[in-house]
Structures are given as structure tokens and as C-alpha cells.
From TrEMBL, chain A:
It comes from Marinobacter oulmenensis. Its main location: membrane. It is a multi-pass membrane protein. The chain crosses the membrane at residues 20-37, 43-63, 70-92, 132-156, 163-181, 211-228, 260-279, 299-323, 335-355. This is Urea transport system permease protein. Pfam families: BPD_transp_2 (PF02653).
UniProtKB/TrEMBL annotation, chain B:
The keyword Kinase does not apply. GO terms for molecular function: ATP binding; ATP hydrolysis activity. It comes from the Bacteria. Keywords: ATP-binding, Nucleotide-binding, Transport. One of its GO terms (cellular component) is plasma membrane. The keyword ATP-binding applies. CDD domains: ABC_Mj1267_LivG_branched. Coiled coil: none annotated. Gene3D superfamilies: P-loop containing nucleotide triphosphate hydrolases. The lineage of its organism: Bacteria, Pseudomonadati, Pseudomonadota, Gammaproteobacteria, Pseudomonadales. This is Urea transport system ATP-binding protein.
UniProtKB/TrEMBL annotation, chain C:
It is found in: Cell inner membrane. It is a multi-pass membrane protein. The keyword Zinc-finger does not apply. This is Urea transport system permease protein. It comes from Marinobacter oulmenensis. Keywords: Amino-acid transport, Cell membrane, Membrane, Signal, Transmembrane, Transmembrane helix, Transport. Belongs to the binding-protein-dependent transport system permease family. LivHM subfamily. The chain crosses the membrane at residues 245-264, 300-320, 332-350, 384-401, 432-452, 464-487, 499-517.
Length: 378, 274, 534
């Protein structure tokens, strides 16, 4: 074990990470078994639809972990992480679009359907290369990372933080949404990218591929979690917390606060990009609505509900809120926005530490009880 | 500096060509040199033609009524505020006006704030760990490992500031005086050449004050220390050389007895009180 | 030329000369009937002459006849030979009226009627003739419109008539228009002097005539015309710039209105209220509600909406402050999230209770229409009102913040809460009033917005990001900054729009602000000094 990868291995020795990874693995394995081994129609059977739904939740969970990394540990409330998610998704969507080949409605071997429809003669330069999986997958990381780098470089260098930063991240995603709505951008405008056929040669509509994507998402979440945990338990993580709580002090200790912020912000954006890339093949579409400021701010409330600066809380929050959303929109769609709005208010006013805060309080209470009992026994 | 300059400047490209650590050049005497410094906020002159020289290894006290510009002076030295005019040099090589806060800190200027600022969410130990002199770039920080010798260094400082028993408690639970101590401890971990200490004994008991005085005087000689303080008793107990600031410039300089008999100083202070 | 026609010509000349008075004359019914019958039966070539003849009778009914002819509604009853005007030509039986007496003759089968055929060229001719008739109406605006309609359609005979008319006309605008109409005709005849008359004109027809001349065979004429055209282009450019500026100021004043309340709650109090947009929406819906309560009096309803909108939004704002924001003091990011939740709830409330669809708010008569500055520039009244309203609201707020006890207390509390409290200022009361004020102003913005945009549940959402941008761009805590920022952002947006398109212009403005904030994090007019750092 060399010292340079120590930071990644450190979380694996941590009890909380072990528990998290254990639970995640168990969940993925149970779902896989229930999907494969039980007959359709059985009470225990998990349908392909449910598998994909769960896969979607896991994507959101990874996205929430990415947001918690910057908000919880660095104190940067990004209201634009949906943009990184969407960019990762578009990179994946472009790959899937190119994979369609001549099976599109217009049968053009190169141009995606919407370009033929718009009478475009040739592929725009930025679409080149996306027919190759490795290139597209690299872009999933690089495009959100590059945007985060440029944006963060400018913002952090000028010491834009707090509410200002939140507002301009929101403006950023809003501007991108408007841009992607334009047909001229070459990303399918309003309709986005859809009608995908297969990924890496696997048919996207087959149950096997869906299960595979679900498992891949589980693995991505596990890796993303360990990376984030590795960062926050390293000295750099403590420097992040230092930047969050006393930026000026950190600077006077000789740390380049803006570089710490930039590093963590870029890592977080890349994770969000990965989440978006895994999301797209599972839901089968990516369109500009993923850039909407509402979505980005919704992510923040998942994290707030789960409990900031815990990472596992972000996962709990993302899964819970999205499960609630699925239930609500099915039963009474009108009530969902009321519920979501109320959630924003209730969590911030009554549950500032989120569900994780409640868990910690209970654990602390039982610990103290145990300690007291021991003392009494002694 | 332009990119071309950076490329042609060979000691910036090749690390081994870079000057030795602690490159502060004090062969010519002063470690800090401020000349004709002025700064104004919305027309109000916070610092007005300030001239100040601190010698290497000196312990200097700076006193002055509220609004005399003491904190602004520290802001200028540490790179937080840019003066409108004047020059500030660290040793005879480093122009502080061209540098930002982390660079100045890395160069060896440590600062304790007027209001004690520690990282409340981190433990006392972690606070000191972050302050420790080390490679503070991103990747080295990410992959940093707590070596036994670092641990020993931290424990040594913990002992010096008397916070061993609170080693693993969050800094947020410390009392005001303890936070002051922790911050001084963090300064020590930085191993600075010049310490700027803003009101170190506010909120301390007599006993704690005495220990602080002891600590600061023991540092002088190896390091240069600049103390800004209101408490005249404390200043008298440690001061060798005192500078009186008034309305952003130096009013008087000398030993404590000299300045306290200076008619100008008496006028300013009595005027304040009256 | 028959004696008859000569007579008619004299009558017309007299009628043009004597003005409106003589237009009331009537010719003999027989003559008129005869002419109209001929018109129905005549071939295309003859019709033109007949039309002129009819108009030259100076009969006050001629206008009605010509209009009926133009619309293909002049007809002859086949049995009796009576000339009638078709009032309603739907269905098998048509409702008709006697062309001469105007008596309603009831319905008649359309097979018994012979209508007159009319083509487009003929219609244009009729328009010209109608305009000549209209040149004699009493209303100067009517005469001006008539003269404008004649531009480019003047022939030699008409020119003569117009010259005569010009001599009599007293209204300067009408005179200028008549002169233009004559000059265009003369230019077509190759008269270089006419260019002098036309060189200042912004009228498109005049420009077209100059353009034709500039490309014509006569080199001297072409040169002079080109020169005149260039000066017109220059003038047009200025007018165009003025128009862009007007649109920019109008958009900017909307931004100022939307943002100024935020400048109070966010800028002065430091409270992030993401539901600010929904308070604007409430103001707009208040206007709609008022108009529902006072049907038929949109103007009165709008005026009443100003205090009502302020009150509704202010009360809603105070409710938000008391129920949520006060518990989140000193936690701006949490305040942001909680108020965002409130904005979702308010939007959904409006969708459920009122309707997810847009509501129509009526614009009162005195606010619709536009002021015409010249041929190329006219200012729509509703936007002019909004600009004025924004300035009034801004001035009012400035007065409150600078000159009243409340303003003083607000500034005291925001600068040092503890100190203000110890001096006997009730900080909580100040919070409530300030937040109420900021929210109320949002309501006012809503009232104004209802006049220029759709009133729907998403109204506020569309303005919240822009409003924050304006406040941040202008410098937080500085009302002047908000004014300057709002107006300049509006103008920049309008300048970019024709060049880049509406969406791209908006994106560019957003990016511009993002870059600007990074260059100057504290906005255009930052607060300086040590206090501002904390």
C-alpha cells in the first residue's frame, strides 16, 4: 500500500462505510435475486420496471452524494448541479444516439433523426467521436468537469461564495436550459435525445440490460461514495471543513482556499456527470428539463432531508424523496408540489440536521445509556 | 507575471533551482518594513503615511486608541487589504504587496485574529494538524498521512498551550480563553518567522495572561512578534519597544516609559477618555 | 368630357376648396341612381371613370356607395333596376337596403340581385378616392390618415386637387403629409425639387419613391435621391436606436419593479426570499380578481389594484416572515431553501384554486394605444405607464428609506442589530415592516406586470432569477444600484436581441452577469469598508 492511494483505502477501514457498502450490496443482490429467481406474478417478484426505477433512485443517490460533498463539507450550496448531471446525461445520450445508426426513422447512417428532420447536411463537429464508447464515457467525466473547472475557477478566484454563488449557479443552469432548448444547439432542442436502441451492443429494452445497468449504478454509487468518503476523511477533507467554517483563517494558514474549493467542486461535478450518464439509458431520454433550476434545488432538499455532511444521509434523502415522488405522482399528482414545498420548509425549520441527525442523536443516546450502565456496573 | 516570464524564470520551473527554504533575507536588519503606506475606505483614511520597521527577533507592542488603524495594518501585512500607496517588504527580498494571503502565510507570517477564529467543527488536534507547516497544495494534502513525528510535534504544542486533556474534543466547546490559546498554538505549528498577534489576552484570567506573556517573550529572539493590545498592564509586562498608532500613522515610538511620558500620547489617550 | 362631368369637376373643386361644409351636399337621386346603375353594368375600363364621377358629385352618401362597391356589396335588383346595398350576404336570402334612401328593404333571394364585380386594382383605386373624400372631414387625425393613404397613389389630376387642398389646410401635420403626397407624384414625374420636400420624410412610401428615383435613368435625379435617402437612413437609425432604448427602458423598468422589493428584503435585510416571484404573481392575480369584481370598469379596478396588490402581497410576505423566515435568522442558505418551498406551494395553490391556465387582465382604454412621435417611432402607452410607475415606486421607496423614521430604523437594525435594540428600536417590528414593505412592492410589480404579460401561475418564477441578478449586479444594499442595474440590463438585452435572438440574448446577459460578478463580486455599487467585510 503506497501512501498516494491511502486516502482511497482509508474509508474501507471505517465502520460507517463498511455498513453502508454492506447494505448497498445486500440491496442490489436481493433485488437481482428477486428479479431473476422468482417467477413473474409471484408476490416476491421484482419486475424489470421496478429494477429500472430503483436504478433511477440510485442515480439520484449518487447525484445527492456529489451535492453533499460540496454543500456539506465545503459549504458551497450549488443550485446548479442538475447542469452537471444533465451534461453527463447528454454525453451518454449522444453516444446512444450514434449507436442507433441507420435504424432511425429516417434511416440515415450518420445523422440522428432530429438533424435529418431539421435538414442538417452533416454532423456538427462536437458530435464527432461520440460513436466510440471510450470517448463518450470520457466526455461524461470531462464535460461536466471542464464546466465546473471554468466556472469554479472564475468564481472561487473572485471569492464568490455563500448566497451569491448559489444564485449564480442557478443562473448558470438556467442559461444552459435556455440554450439546450434551442434547436440550433444541435442537441435535439425541446425533445432532447431519445429513441435509443442499445448500449455497448446490448439491447436497452431487454430485461438483462436493465438489470445490468441497475447493478452498474449500484457499483458507481459504491465507488462514488468511497471516493467522497476518502476525500472527507483525508487532511484535505478537514481543510474543506476549515474553508467552510472559517475561510479567512484557512487562508492565513497558507492553504489556497480557492484551489481546495475548485478541486472538490470539479470532483463533485464529475460524479454528478456519471450519475447523469447512468440515468439516461435507464429512463431512455435526456431533455433540457434536467437543467431546470427546480430540479437542481430539489437535489439540495434530498440532501437536507437526509442530513448534510454525512454522505449516507444524502443517499437516504434521495431515495426517500424520490420514492415519495413516485407514489404521490401516481396517486394524486396535484399534491406532489405541495408535499415537496412543505418538505423544503419543514426540513429547514424543524430538521436542520436531517434524518442522519436523528439517527446520530438516537445512537448517542443509546451510547450514553450504555456508558452509564457500564459505570453503574463498575 | 506573464506565462513567458514564468517559463523563462528557471528557478520557477525546476524545483531544485528554487531558493532554500526560509528564503527571508534579513541580512540587512529588518524583517518587516512598511514605508509611506496609506489606505482609505470611502474617503476615510484608515492608514495615513504609516512607516514601521520590525527587526528580526524583535518583540514589538503596538498600542493605540480604537480606530487608530491597528487591525487594518495587520490586514495589509497579511495581504487581506491592498494599500492605496506605499510599500511593504518582508526581509529585503519579498514585496508583500505582490502576494496573496496563502503565499504570505507560507512565507512565514502567522496571524492571530482579534476575535479568536478556530475551526469549531474540528477537534483541537485537527486544528493544530491543519496549521502544521507542511506542503499545503491540493494533492499532497489529499494524500497526507499522519506520521508519528507530526503527532509528537502536535502533542508538544498541545502541552505548551495546556490543552492536552481536550485533544480530541471539538474546538467549538472551548472557552474564549482556550480558543485564544489554541489559536496561538496554531500559530506555533506554522513555525512562522513573524507572528502578528491581535489582542491575545482579551477574555483571559490574570493567570492565563501571565502564561501568555511568558510564552510570547520566550518566542522573541527566535521569531519576531508583533502584539497589538489594549491592556496596558499586559503591554508593560512584555514590552521592550512600543509603537503608538494614532489616526493611521505612528505617533510615538520607544520604550514603554518613554512613550507613556510623551505629551502627544498623553493628550491622545486623555482626550479619548475625556 | 361631357358637360356633366365638367360640372362635377367644378363641384368637386368647390367642395375641396370649401372644405367639410359642402360635403353635405346631395345630388339628384335620379342622377345618382343612374351613375350607380352604370357602375354595376359597366366593364372594368369604364368603371374607373364612373367611380371618379360618383366621388366628384360631392354627395354625402358617396362614401357609403364606394365602400359598398369596394366590398362587392353594391347590387341592382334585376326586376326593378333599383340600386341596393347588401347588408348581409350570408345564406340564400340577402338583407338589403336602398342605396339612395338607406331604407332597409328586408331580405331578397340572391338570385334576384346582380352584384357588381370588383378586383384588387379597382379596390386600390377606390381607396384612393375614399381618401380624397376623407381629406375634408373635420377631425384632423382623420384628414391625416386620409392624406397618408394617398401617398404614392397620386396622379396628375389628384395632385392638382391636393395642391388646392394644401392651400386651405391649417393643420401642420396634415399639410406636411399632403406636401409629401404631392412631392412623391412630382418625383415620379422627374421633378428634382420634390426631393427637397421628401428628404426629411420617414414614411416608407416616400422612401420607396426615392429609392426608385435613385435607381432611375436621370443621373442628377438619382444622385439627389441617393443623398436624400442617406439622410433618411441616418434619421431612421436614430429613430431605431430611440425605439430600442425605449423597449430597453421598458423592459428595464419591469426588471426594476420586480427587483426593487428584493433589493429591500435581500439587499437591506439580507433575507433570501425565493418566494418573491410568487408575491409578484399574487399582485398580478389581485388585479385580475379586482377586474372580476368590477366588471366593465377595468380602469377603476386597475387603480384600486395598486393599494390592494400592495396589501395582499405585503400580508403574504409578513405571513412568510413570521411563520418561517424569523426562525432561520443568520442561516441564509436554509432561508433560501425554505422560501423556495413556499414558492412551490403558492404556485400550486394558484393552480389548484384558480386555474393552471393564464388569466386575461383587461387593459383599460386610457392605457392602450400608442403615442406616435413620428412616422418611424411610436411608443406604446402601457409600457410608458409602466416606466412611469416604476420610477414613482422607486422614488417612493427612496423617500421611505431616506426620510422616514422607519427607513432610519431599518438602516440601524441592518447595520448593528444589537446596538439598535439597545437604543430602544423594536427590531422584530422593524423586520416585519421591512419585509412587508419589500413584499408589498413585489405586489405592485405584479399589478404592473399584469398589463404587459400573461397572468399565470408561472409568472413569478420567470422573474425570480432575473430579479436576483439585478440586485446582485447593482450591488446588494444599494437601491440606486438596483435602478441602474435594472435599466441597463433591460437595455443591453434589447440591444442584443435583434442581433442574437431573444433566447440567446437572455443567455448572453446571464453569462455577462456571471462574469461580471466574478470580476466585481460586490456589484456595480459596492459597500466599502471594514463593516462590509463581515
Amino acid at each position: 500500500m503506497t501512501s498516494s492511494n491511502m486516502w482511497l483505502l482509508r474509508p474501507l477501514q471505517e465502520r460507517s462505510t463498511q455498513i453502508f457498502l454492506g447494505l448497498l450490496t445486500a440491496a442490489v443482490v436481493v433485488v437481482t435475486i428477486l428479479h431473476l429467481a422468482t417467477p413473474e406474478g409471484s408476490a416476491l417478484h421484482v419486475s424489470a420496471y421496478t429494477v429500472t426505477l430503483l436504478g433511477k433512485y440510485l442515480c439520484y443517490a449518487l447525484l445527492a452524494v456529489a451535492v453533499d460533498l460540496v454543500w456539506g463539507y465545503l459549504g458551497i450550496l450549488s443550485l446548479g448541479h442538475g447542469a452537471f448531471f444533465a451534461l453527463g446525461g447528454y454525453a451518454m445520450g449522444m453516444y446512444l444516439m450514434r449507436q442507433i445508426g441507420d435504424r432511425g426513422v429516417y434511416g440515415d447512417p450518420i445523422l440522428p433523426d432530429f438533424m435529418v428532420f431539421l435538414n442538417w447536411q452533416e454532423l456538427p463537429w462536437y458530435w464527432h467521436g461520440f460513436d466510440m464508447a471510450w470517448f463518450a464515457f470520457a466526455m461524461v467525466l470531462l464535460v461536466p468537469g471542464a464546466l465546473a473547472f471554468v466556472f469554479g475557477f472564475l468564481a472561487f478566484r473572485s471569492r464568490v461564495t455563500g448566497v451569491y454563488l448559489s444564485i449564480i449557479t442557478q443562473a448558470l443552469t438556467f442559461a444552459l436550459m435556455l440554450a439546450f432548448f434551442r434547436n440550433e444547439m444541435g442537441f435535439g432542442g425541446n425533445n432532447g435525445l431519445t429513441d435509443f436502441k442499445d448500449i455497448l451492443g446490448f439491447d436497452l429494452r431487454s430485461d438483462g440490460t436493465r438489470l445490468g445497468l441497475f447493478i452498474a449504478t449500484g457499483i458507481a454509487l459504491a465507488v462514488g461514495y468511497v471516493v467522497c468518503r476518502g476525500i472527507v476523511t483525508s487532511k484535505l477533507g478537514r481543510v474543506s471543513v476549515a474553508c467552510r467554517d472559517a475561510e479567512a483563517r484557512t487562508r492565513f494558514l497558507g492553504y489556497r482556499v480557492e484551489r481546495v474549493q475548485l478541486f472538490v467542486f470539479v470532483v463533485s461535478a464529475m460524479l454528478a456527470g456519471v450519475a447523469g450518464a447512468l440515468y439516461v439509458p435507464q429512463v431512455g431520454i435526456i431533455n433540457p428539463s434536467e437543467f431546470s433550476p427546480l430540479f437542481s434545488i430539489e437535489i439540495v432538499v434530498w440532501v437536507a432531508l437526509g442530513g448534510r455532511a454525512t454522505l449516507y444521509g444524502a443517499v437516504i434523502g434521495a431515495v426517500l424523496v424520490n420514492y415519495a415522488k413516485t407514489v404521490f405522482t401516481g396517486v394524486m399528482p396535484d399534491a406532489w408540489l405541495f408535499a415537496l414545498g412543505a418538505l423544503f420548509v419543514l426540513v429547514t425549520v424543524f430538521l436542520p440536521k436531517g434524518i442522519a441527525g436523528l439517527l446520530q442523536k438516537r445512537r448517542k443516546a443509546t451510547d450514553d445509556d450504555g456508558a452509564n450502565a457500564q459505570e453503574v456496573a463498575a | 507575471m506573464s506565462v513567458l516570464d514564468q517559463l523563462t524564470n528557471r528557478d520557477q520551473v525546476f524545483d531544485f533551482l528554487a531558493p532554500e527554504a526560509s528564503p527571508v533575507d534579513v541580512r540587512h536588519g529588518p524583517i518587516l518594513y512598511m514605508e509611506d503606506v496609506s489606505v482609505s475606505f470611502d474617503g476615510f483614511k484608515a492608514i495615513n503615511n504609516l512607516n514601521l520597521t520590525i527587526d528580526d527577533g524583535e518583540l514589538r507592542c503596538i498600542i493605540g486608541p480604537n480606530g487608530a488603524g491597528k487591525t487594518t495594518m495587520m490586514d495589509i501585512i497579511t495581504g487581506k487589504t491592498r494599500p492605496d500607496t506605499g510599500s511593504v517588504w518582508f526581509g529585503s527580498r519579498h514585496n508583500l504587496l505582490n502576494m496573496n494571503e496563502p503565499d504570505i502565510a507560507s512565507l512565514g507570517i502567522g496571524r492571530k485574529f482579534q476575535k479568536p477564529t478556530v475551526f469549531e467543527a474540528l477537534t483541537v488536534f485537527e486544528n493544530l494538524e491543519l496549521a502544521m507547516a507542511a506542503d499545503k497544495r491540493i494533492l499532497p494534502t489529499l494524500t497526507a498521512i499522519m506520521k508519528p513525528e507530526y503527532r509528537d510535534q502536535i502533542d508538544e504544542v498541545l502541552e505548551m498551550i495546556g490543552l492536552q486533556s481536550l485533544r480530541d474534543r471539538p474546538a467549538g466547546i472551548l472557552s474564549h480563553g482556550q480558543k485564544q490559546w489554541l489559536e496561538i498554538g496554531m500559530l506555533l505549528m506554522q513555525k512562522p518567522r513573524l507572528l502578528l498577534v491581535d489582542e491575545p489576552v482579551a477574555g483571559m484570567t490574570e493567570q492565563e495572561m501571565e502564561r501568555t506573556a511568558e510564552l510570547l517573550t520566550s518566542l522573541a529572539g527566535k521569531q519576531s512578534v508583533v502584539v497589538v493590545e489594549h491592556d496596558m498592564g499586559f503591554v508593560r509586562s512584555i514590552a521592550r519597544e512600543v509603537t503608538v498608532l494614532h489616526q493611521g500613522s505612528v505617533l510615538a515610538e520607544g520604550s514603554m516609559d518613554q512613550v507613556s511620558n510623551d505629551p502627544e500620547v498623553i493628550k491622545v489617550y486623555l482626550g479619548e477618555e475625556a | 368630357m361631357s358637360i356633366y362631368r365638367l360640372l362635377a369637376r367644378i363641384v368637386l373643386a368647390a367642395c375641396l376648396a370649401l372644405g367639410p361644409m359642402l360635403a353635405t351636399a346631395q345630388v339628384q337621386d335620379d342622377t345618382a341612381r343612374d351613375l350607380l346603375k352604370q357602375l354595376v353594368e359597366a366593364n372594368q375600363a369604364e368603371k374607373l371613370g364612373l367611380l371618379k364621377e360618383i366621388s366628384e358629385t360631392g354627395d354625402e352618401r358617396a362614401r357609403g356607395w364606394l365602400e359598398a362597391f369596394r366590398g362587392g356589396k353594391l347590387a341592382v335588383v334585376e326586376d326593378t333596376g333599383n340600386v341596393v346595398i347588401v347588408l348581409n350576404n350570408r345564406g340564400r336570402d340577402w338583407e338589403i337596403a336602398d342605396a339612395l334612401s338607406g331604407d332597409n328593404l328586408g331580405e331578397m333571394s340572391r338570385r334576384d340581385l346582380e352584384t357588381v364585380r370588383v378586383n384588387n386594382a379597382m379596390r386600390a383605386q377606390v381607396d384612393g378616392i375614399l381618401s380624397v373624400i376623407d381629406l375634408t372631414v373635420t377631425d384632423p387625425q382623420g384628414r391625416l390618415d386620409a392624406a397618408r393613404n394617398l401617398l404614392g397613389d397620386v396622379d396628375a389630376t389628384l395632385a392638382e386637387q391636393l395642391e388646392a387642398r394644401l392651400a386651405e389646410e391649417e393643420n401642420a401635420d396634415v399639410r406636411a403629409m399632403l406636401a409629401n403626397a404631392i412631392a412623391i407624384h412630382r418625383l415620379e414625374q422627374g421633378d428634382a425639387e420634390a426631393i427637397d420636400v421628401l428628404s426629411g420624410s420617414l414614411n416608407p412610401t416616400a422612401r420607396a419613391a426615392l429609392n426608385t428615383a435613385a435607381n432611375g435613368d436621370d443621373p442628377a435625379l438619382a444622385a439627389a435621391a441617393s443623398k436624400a435617402l442617406a439622410s433618411i437612413e441616418q434619421k431612421l437609425k436614430i429613430n431605431h436606436a430611440a425605439e430600442t432604448l425605449y423597449f430597453g427602458l421598458s423592459l428595464g423598468s419591469v426588471l426594476v419593479l420586480a427587483a426593487i422589493g428584493l433589493a429591500i428584503t435581500f439587499g437591506v435585510m439580507g433575507v433570501i426570499n425565493m418566494a418573491h416571484g410568487e408575491l409578484i404573481m399574487l399582485g398580478a392575480y389581485t388585479t385580475w380578481g379586482m377586474q372580476q369584481m368590477l366588471p366593465g370598469q377595468p380602469g377603476l379596478a386597475l387603480v384600486l389594484s395598486i393599494p390592494a396588490g400592495f396589501l395582499v402581497a405585503a400580508l403574504a410576505g409578513i405571513a412568510i416572515e413570521r411563520s418561517v423566515i424569523q426562525f432561520l435568522k443568520g442561516r441564509p442558505l436554509e432561508t433560501l431553501l425554505a422560501t423556495f418551498g413556499i414558492s412551490l406551494i403558492l404556485q400550486q395553490l394558484v393552480r389548484t384554486v384558480i386555474s393552471p391556465l393564464n388569466r386575461t387582465v383587461v387593459t383599460p382604454e386610457w392605457m392602450s394605444g400608442s403615442i406616435m412621435i413620428n412616422e418611424a417611432l411610436s411608443l406604446t402607452l402601457n409600457r410608458l405607464y409602466v416606466i412611469g410607475f416604476a420610477l414613482v415606486v422607486f422614488a417612493g421607496l427612496m423617500l421611505i428609506m431616506r426620510r422616514t423614521r422607519l427607513g432610519l430604523e431599518v438602516r440601524a437594525v441592518t447595520q448593528n442589530r444589537a446596538m439598535a435594540r439597545s437604543m430602544g428600536i423594536k427590531a422584530t417590528r422593524v423586520d416585519i415592516l421591512t419585509f412587508g414593505l419589500g413584499s408589498g412592492v413585489a405586489g405592485l410589480a405584479g399589478v404592473a406586470l399584469s398589463q404587459i404579460t400573461n397572468v399565470g401561475p408561472n409568472l413569478g418564477q420567470n422573474y425570480i432569477i432575473d430579479s436576483f441578478m439585478v440586485v446582485v449586479f447593482g450591488g446588494v444594499g444599494n437601491l440606486w444600484g438596483t435602478l441602474v442595474a435594472g435599466l441597463s440590463l433591460g437595455t443591453i438585452n434589447q440591444i442584443l436581441e435583434p442581433w442574437a435572438g431573444a433566447v440567446l440574448a437572455k443567455i448572453m446577459v446571464l453569462v455577462l452577469i456571471i462574469l461580471f460578478i466574478q470580476k466585481r463580486p460586490k456589484g456595480l455599487f459596492p459597500q466599502k469598508g471594514r463593516a462590509a467585510e463581515n
